[in-house]
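Quarterly update from the structural biology core.
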Amino acid sequence: DNDELFYLDNQASVSEHFKRLSADGVFQMNYVNHEAVPEKLDITGDFFREVRLFKRSLAELPESGASVQARKARDFWSLRSNLMEGAWFLGYENGKSAVRVLPGVVPASVHEWLPTHQLQ
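Predicted structure, tokenized:
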């Protein structure tokens, strides 16, 4: 999707990242997503360079031990959506998946894959 960015904070290239997963025997990897929160309406350049504020996935936020300020912020973003009550992101919240392309790989869902030997 042109509104998404695959970002690796450890400076590895995408190719190196997937080579490492393959070497480790990883068949499928699920990635959490974050949602950009533009602080202005008139972004004229590279969206990914101009936007600096992101909501992290709820899966990465602590459920307990969060500060009062963090809980208020979480409540604000959850209550402000008119699209769906309690929605954290305006878009999807279930992340993205990558799968090693092999003969016989079939989808188990939109975010899960099965090799054919698991189907037998």
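Residues 41 and 51 are 11 Å apart (CA to CA).
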